[in-house]
Amino acid sequence: MKRFAYIRVSDKDQNVDRQIITMKKEGIDDRDVFIEKMSGKNFDRPKYQLLKQLVRKDDEIVFDSITRMGRTMNETLKEYEWFVENGVQLKFIKEPMINTSNEQEDIIKQAIQRVILTVLAAFAEKERIDTKIRQAEGIQAAKDKGKHLGRPRAVITPEFIQAYNQWMNNEISAVEAMEKANMSKTTFYRKVKEFKGK
């Protein structure tokens, strides 16, 4: 029997340290810890798929929570069943009631376990959907207030003005002006148009 850990967060800015500490407490070797910074909306994740290829019957995969496995109810249930059918044990730190075992279990206990799993997976999907809705509402509210979203807009700096004047006087090329202004080609010409408009 070999033990693995799967750690997932939804995006690159999120921290995985807490989950790593949890897996260290479980005694899982660092080389057997699979870390992924991707959404749980589907299972097309490279590290997760690699882990599925590596595990064998009687191996165990440890998750911090069912939400780390996935956040779509039907797909999560399918993945869970795949591991059960292949004799791979699953351990969920926060939801021990859905941990699997290769031992013969009472049919009623198995049924209750599947009901709990379905409810937890449904809540995980709902939470993901609700988060997306809140994000969309927040973005729309910010737009309605005239707030700029995304990367900060490039401003007309003294460096740009100097580079612009040198370029207009044929003292430097457009490429050199862009470098001096520290702007991309698109941004530079947009700011040229804006500057001329003033």
Q: What can you see in these coordinates?
A:
- The structure is a single chain.
- The chain is of the alpha/beta class.
- It has two domains: 3-128, Rossmann fold (3-Layer(aba) Sandwich), CATH 3.40.50.1390; 158-197, no CATH class.
- It is 53% helix and 10% strand.
- α4 runs antiparallel to α5 and α6 runs antiparallel to α7 (174-181).
- It is elongated.
- The mean pLDDT is 88.
Q: Which characteristics define this entry?
A:
single chain, 198 residues, Rossmann fold, 2 domains, 4-stranded parallel beta sheet, 8 helices, 4 strands, 10% strand
The major beta sheet can be summarized as:
4 strands, parallel
Overall number of domains: 2
What are the low-pLDDT stretches, counting only 5+ consecutive residues below 50? Answer: none
The strand line-up of the biggest sheet is 2-1-3-4
Large-scale geometry: elongated
How far from one another are the termini?
Answer: 72 Å
What is the alpha-carbon Rg in Å?
26 Å
The total of helices stands at: 8
GO molecular function: DNA binding; DNA strand exchange activity
Organism: Heyndrickxia sporothermodurans
Family: Belongs to the site-specific recombinase resolvase family.
Domain Resolvase/invertase-type recombinase catalytic: 2-146
